[in-house]
Each structure stands twice: as C-alpha cells, then as structure tokens.
Specification:
Elements (H helix, E strand, L loop, with lengths): L1 E6 L7 H14 L4 E7 L1 H4 L8 E5 L5 H20 L3 E4 L12 E4 L8 H9 L3 H20 L2 E4 L2 H11 L4 E2 L6 H4 L8 H4 L9 E5 L9 H14 L5 E5 L15 H10 L5 E3 L8 H6 L3 E4 L8 H8 L4 E4 L2 H7 L3 E4 L4 H13 L1 H15 L4 H22 L1
Parallel strand pairs: 1-2, 1-4, 2-3, 4-5, 5-6, 6-7, 8-9, 8-11, 9-10, 11-12, 12-13
Helix pairs in contact: 1-16, 9-10, 9-14, 12-15, 14-15
C-alpha cells in the first residue's frame, strides 16, 4: 500500500477539474493506493465518497498567488497529518523542500511560449505579461524543486526540459469514453434551442473559454472566407463561451474578439453558447460536423480527444502537440493563417471520403488514451521514488 497526497488546489477551470474528475475514480479502484486529495470547497461538492480516497478542503478558491502562499505555508502540515508518503502537485507549482518525495505535474505551456509573450505585448496587456513572467519564474523553479516532473505530452515535455534545464518525463493524459458519454441528460434548453435553427448548416465547434492562446481571432477571421466560398450554405461556428471579459475565467480581455466579429460582419455565423455542462458535452460534439482548434500553444488539448471519440473530423493548428495527439485523425494549418484554416475545413466539407477517413481514424486514435494507464504510470513513478528514497536512507 502506498499513500499519495494529491494537491488539486489548482483545479479551478478547464483541464484541471477534468483531470481530477477522471483520476480520482481510477485511484479509488486500486487496492494498493490510499489517496488524500486536497481541493477547493467548490469542487469538493462534485465528488461522492470513494473507497481508498479521502478529501481535504482548503476553503474557497484563492487565486494563483493565494494558492501558492497557502501551499508553501500550510501543505507540509497537511502532509504530515495525512501520513502520505509521496506528494503529487498538479498545478505547475511545486512545494519547496517537500518533506516527502514529490511528483510535479506541469501543464501550462504559456511560460515557455514566445508566441504568447508576443501576443500579450501586441495587445498591450503588460500586466498579464509581467504576471506570466513572474509565475513562469516560479514554475521553472518548481521543476527544479520536484523530484520528478511530468508533462502530458512528449512535445511539451521536450519544451519544458529545454526551458528548465532538467529532464521532464511525459505521461499522456487519458480518456474514458464510457464515462464521457455515460450521462444521458440532454443539453440544457438554452443551448439545445440554438442548434435546430442551424440544422442545414455546416456546423463547426470549438470548446474553450475565451483566452488569448487559443487564438480565437484567427478562427473568427476564417468565417467570412468560408461564408464567401460556400454561397447558399449556412456556416455556423459554435463556441462554449461568450466573447465578454466578465464571463470568462482569468483576466483575458475579449473585447478585441467581439469587435472583430462586428467588423467582419459574421455575427450571424457565430453562436456563443456559453459554458456547457461537462456531462452534456458529448451531445454537443455529436450535433456538429467538424472540430476546429486554432490554438498557438498547447500541452495536451482534451477537447481534441473528446472530438475524435465523438467521430468528428479535426482541423487543428500545426503544433507538434496536436500532431502527437491526433496523428492522421486531423488535418493541419499554419497557426496564424485564417485562409489555410478555411481551406482545410473546405477540404473536409467537399470530400465525404476524407471526412469519413478522419472520423474513423479519430475513433481509433481516441482509444489510445487511458486514464487507467495514466494512473498506473503515476503510481509506478511514486513507487520508484520511494524505493530510491529508501536506498538513500
């Protein structure tokens, strides 16, 4: 029996909660693991009781700075009280001088992305530029503080290793199709009612809250190109967010994207669904024709696997991580080219054979990702650390 402490305080939006939703049930199925999971009070409400898993709450979400301070001052005491033997830190920042061996899960590519820093400077968002630089410094130090650092893809592990000057391992995140599609609860009426009117349209989907690095503007610029090249055909892009700064997590300003929609006259081509419950997402994927991802930096991209498992052909920016995750289930375009993005979408639209080939490849590719295998690898790493610790002592 190995006792793990999972620090999940960083799980506030996007991939963080998705990670815990899938990893915690896998830990509960193992008889050789006793896990303590530290999460916010808000997220704790999602989880029922699990065998072999106990929860520690840290009150309301504190923001990145508040979380970091809490971890550095309070986490050691929580570790001692839990009797845990290995710490798994899930949020890019490690505990300095951890009293037990520590595995750091690093999943933020912004710190190593030159494109992101250029983009932020171009937007004159200097506060965000400084904030990211400071967090990046602590993230780099964290790689050095941890005994082992794990990235969710080979491509990001290589970037992180070069940036931090320390070897980084890659362990793919997983996917559980049965769990993803298990809830038959339909989409909320507020979302469902926006789909039927586009029944005869080419329906594109992009699953993300608004931020800069997902490169919404390139996707928006592709819409008038598609509209003009498909006369008589409706084109609809469905977003799982609103292009309003106040309705998205973080400090990203969405006004530029919203203004671009008006300037290009594509308001009728864009449907802002807002946040979609995770349990119902599979219904949305199946209601669309093509999944598009214009991100200019990424670490893993769960929605790509979700889209492939739903049978959607994928059009993605030509990033090493996208090719690693999708392989021949996607077709790719230069990340800042709306013309190339539109060309790839039209390739699929004009060729049912290509659409079918990509769909079939995606269904097969999605099966290559397993949360069970992910957890097995993490537990094996923890056991290796304990054996090494025992030899040193």
């Amino acid at each position: 029996m190995i006792r793990l402490f999972i620090n999940g305080l960083a799980a506030s939006a996007g991939a963080g909660p998705t990670y815990l939703r899938n990893v915690i049930p896998q830990l509960a199925r193992r008889t050789d693991v006793q896990a303590t999971v530290l999460i916010s009070a808000e997220l704790r409400q999602e989880f029922v009781e699990f065998p072999n898993v106990s929860f520690a709450e840290a009150g309301a979400s504190r923001g990145v700075v508040g979380r970091f301070v809490f971890e550095q001052t309070k986490l050691r005491d929580l570790l001692r009280r839990s009797g845990s033997e290995v710490l798994v830190s899930t949020g890019n920042f490690a505990l300095r001088h951890s009293p037990v061996p520590q595995i750091l899960l690093s999943g933020n590519s912004l710190y190593v992305s030159a494109d992101f820093y250029r983009d932020v400077r171009k937007r004159r968002d200097y506060t965000l530029w400084i904030d990211t630089r400071i967090k990046g410094w602590f993230a780099r130090q964290s790689v050095r503080w941890a005994d082992v650092t794990v990235a969710p893809s080979h491509a990001f592990a290589e970037d992180l290793s070069q940036w931090a000057g320390k070897n980084v391992l890659s362990v793919h995140h997983g996917f559980d199709r049965d769990l993803f599609t298990s809830d038959s609860t339909p989409l909320p009426d507020s979302i469902q009612n926006q789909l039927p009117e586009s029944a005869d349209a080419l329906k594109l989907l992009f699953v993300s809250h608004y931020n800069y690095y997902r490169n919404f503007e390139t996707l928006i610029r592709a819409l008038p190109i598609l509209r003009d090249r498909l006369p008589g055909k409706k084109v609809r892009l469905f977003l799982t967010c609103h292009l309003a700064s106040s309705q998205n997590p973080g400090s990203y300003r969405a006004e530029t994207a919203a203004s671009l929609v008006s300037t290009l006259g594509v308001r009728d081509n864009l449907v802002e669904l807002g946040s979609v419950p995770y349990r119902s997402l599979h219904h949305l994927y199946r209601a669309c024709h093509i999944y598009v991802s214009p991100a200019y930096t990424e670490t893993f991209a769960h929605p790509l696997v979700e889209a492939m498992s739903s049978g959607l052909p994928v059009v993605a920016s030509d990033l090493p991580v996208h090719r690693e995750i999708c392989g021949d289930a996607g077709i790719y375009f230069p990340r800042f080219s709306p013309d190339a993005l539109a060309d790839r979408v039209l390739q699929i639209h004009d060729s049912p054979e290509l659409a079918e080939k990509l769909s079939t490849s995606g269904l097969q590719r999605a099966c290559d990702f397993s949360w069970r295998q992910h957890v097995e690898r993490l537990v094996a790493l923890a056991q290796e650390l304990l054996r090494s610790e025992g030899k040193r002592n």
